[in-house]
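User: Please predict the structure of the protein below. I'd like the answer in structure-token form so I can feed it into my own downstream comparison script.

Assistant: Understood. Taking the following sequence of 338 residues as input:
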Amino acid sequence: MLGLFACKEKTKPTDKFNANAPISVDIAIAATQVVDKVIEVNGSVVASEFVDIRPESNGRIVFLQIPEGKMVTAGTVLAKLNDADLQAQLQKIKVQLELAIINEKRNLKLVQAKGINQSDYDISLQQVNGLKADMAYTQSLIDKTVIKAPFTGQMGLRQVSLGANINTASTIVTLQKVDQLKVDFTLPEIYQNYIKVGKKVTVESIANPGVKMTATIAAIEPQIIATSRNIKVRANLQGKLLPGAYTKVILGENQQKPSILVPSNIIIPDSKVKQLVVVREGKAKFINVETGYRTAAGVEITSGVKVGDSLIVAGMLFVRDGSDLKIGKTLPLVDIIK
């Protein structure tokens, strides 16, 4: 038999990747830019005064006058609960008080004439004072059956009907003071230097784009919201909007300052720090930076980078700290951020 043998050709070893070879990157030179720093956050319009009108006692509604959507003045009677039992109790106390007063006057004459002991007179006087207190208490319960507008404002929609049995948890109507409006908004704590009491901000309604109003910051929450790291701010609005309206609040710096802006995509986020890669003596160097104002494509560097530093803007995928670099293009930093 003729045996056939296949000869294997020796394969040539492939070239191994040279880990020490310089990595080709593109750079940009850090430079300052004058940036119009404008912060835009979401806000919500609130009435200067708002209340859910509820009764102070339980009972059946016997009078109801709610002018829905209309203005009412402070003290206007809106509803009244049945108080027949309280009125009867008050009348009974009045009769008892009249008799107690007559008895107290009689005993006063007797004690002056040494006809009775002082303790007997004191008991009659105590009865008078006790009945007066009972009458004042009953009158306060009757007053609670009358529901009035606590301040001048605009009525909401009626939530109950005449004859309904309600309790202290029942909302009869809402009342809002809409002649003075406020805007509540929150912004990240890094922008706390942009706000102070008395500063004016611009408010733009989402429902009416292009219509801008002015608001003056009236108060700043003294504590930062721990869950979101935001600051809550309230401003007095000069304009007419519906309470609850969604708005944009625009804040700007009082004075423009030159800043170093870098593209947001070259910042390396970490659990604790943010880093950039710069070129130092032909090698890559990872540095910690602090950021500030943000634009659509750029981020302000407040610490860690100085003017003239060479920032790696392309080819960062294989770069490690201390890697040898081969500089390709030097790109204008302004054009990258745009």
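That's the full token string. The helical segments are 84-112, 118-144, 333-337.
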